[in-house]
Amino acid sequence: MSGELVQLNKKGRIAEVVLNRADSRNAFSPEMIQSIQDAFVEISNDKSVSVAVFKGAGPSFCAGADLNYMQSMAKFKFEDNLKDAERLFDMFNAVYNCAVPVIGKIHGHAMGGGVGLVSVCDFSAAQRDTKFAFSEVRLGIAPAVISPFIARKLGTLGNQEVMLTGEMFGADRAFELQLINFVGSDDEVEDYVLGKAELIASNGPCAVRETKGLMRLTQGEISAGIKAAVTNQIANLRSSPEGQEGLKAFLEKRKPNWTN
């Protein structure tokens, strides 16, 4: 169990999904992306589960893509980037469309794709010192894959500010933007998440799943056309001279030299 990239634990009607790369601040690898998707598909298919708690082991919730993954991306051609972006989209979509409510328990850092994971939770609580950032624009790319999910979570003004600046922001700002629902100490966040999970688990299991489905229905489907648009966009940006320069600058720990 301890060696798994993603741990899935079940107790009664509550499932717990734990990102388990603590030494890498739970940064994404291709294998981890697939494991996250698999965990939430399993939860959706398990009618004994009514709610899922999503959290990270160690000092952070999720730091985005890990260095080895980013080094690989810097070498990808368009076709490789497109396949990778489609896998990433499918992971976010599996959490977003999980048949049961997903409660995020956020701490440490949620960066890039890590903020994307927060956005696909139905609601979340974060420790007060948690830091968030849509860091993609600083790398010469865009938060394309997560943008459809972010648009359903944040208001337009807040969405534009944090995605265009790429600046880091704290839990109180995340609460103002409606990215998260609760801010508190470690113990307060634990009590909030467990309390909400137990309340949901005590409700009619079919009613909970139907209500989750109704919320997604009224929010509007993320269509195949949207998936194609955002995955093609990020594949083009990663393969572009600007995207290549941004990724290389990050890996070489220097400022990027933008040519335009």
Describe this protein with a few key phrases:
2-enoyl-CoA Hydratase, Chain A, domain 1; globular; alpha/beta; 9 strands; 260 residues; six-stranded mixed beta sheet; three-stranded mixed beta sheet
Explain what this protein looks like in three dimensions:
The chain has a single domain (6-189), classed as 2-enoyl-CoA Hydratase, Chain A, domain 1 (Alpha-Beta Complex), CATH 3.90.226.10. A hairpin with a 2-residue loop joins strand 1 and strand 2 (14-19). The strands form two sheets. Strands 1-2-3-4-6-9 form a six-stranded mixed β-sheet, sandwiched between helices. The protein has a three-stranded mixed β-sheet with strand order 5-7-8. The protein is an alpha/beta fold and 260 residues long. The mean pLDDT is 94. It is 51% helix and 15% strand. It contains eleven helices and nine strands.
The value of Rg in angstroms is: 18 Å
CATH superfamily: 2-enoyl-CoA Hydratase, Chain A, domain 1
Question: What fold name goes in the CATH topology slot?
Answer: 2-enoyl-CoA Hydratase, Chain A, domain 1
* Tally of discrete structural domains: 1
The count of β-strands is: 9
**First and last CA, distance:** 49 Å
The amount of beta strand, in percent, is: 15-25%
Count helical runs.
11
- Architecture (CATH level 2) name: Alpha-Beta Complex
- What oligomerization state is this entry in? single chain
Secondary-structure element order, N to C: EEHEHHEEHEEHHEHEHHHH
Largest sheet: 6 strands, mixed
Widest beta sheet: strand line-up: 1-2-3-4-6-9
Low-confidence stretches: none
CATH class: Alpha Beta
Give the helix level as a range of percent: 40-55%
- Return the average pLDDT rounded to an integer: 94
